Amino acid sequence: MTPQREEKFRRVVAKRQFNLTVVLENVHDPHNIGAVMRTCDAVGIREIYVLYTENQLTEETLQVGTSAASGAKKWVDVHLFEDPASCFKAIRQKYDFIFATHLAEDAKSLYDIDLTASVALLFGNEKDGVSAESLTYTDGNFLIPQMGMVQSLNISVACAVSLYEALRQRLQAGLYEQDPLELDAQQSQLFDQYYNLHEQRIIDRRNSKKGLKLD
Fold this sequence. Notes:
By secondary structure, the protein is an alpha/beta fold. The protein has helices at residues 3-14, 30-43, 59-68, 84-92, 132-135, 155-172, 185-214; strands at 20-25, 47-51, 77-81, 97-101, 108-109, 119-123, 140-143.
């Protein structure tokens, strides 16, 4: 790894937000999953949770989605679940609050919730939104203010708007100011993971070129 590449890895890892994540429930369009992953990488999220409870949704859908994520899929971990209880139990072990995008009477504006806290943001599918069962695991609902006739946004757009509000709040709170040369244990572990991915990619490329020469 070149010094420049290592510096970039350290800079990216230092800005990773270990207490912010996204949960996608029964998202049908794999390209939406890919778009969400790219946004997550852009704002410093290191992992997402994907919950599939509908029979027509399979791991293949997720694989297509991660392919659509282009380079982001290497740097954002995806946890796949088929059971809501198991999914939200795993999330609760790492994150303090779960907020869902849901049009309820008690829903708060996106801009009125504290996104500097340890938070998981739950987004439902393109047609039905968040399921009633998943809502039982949440701490509250939020909505994105809209002024148009059609009060809905594409899932990937809604996620992007929400995550960039989180980025704005976290920038103001100084949560992206970690010194890349002073990584803590968690960050160092992630750096090692990225380093190993980088090295494996180089090995794979070399092996691929050798195979082409042999042919």
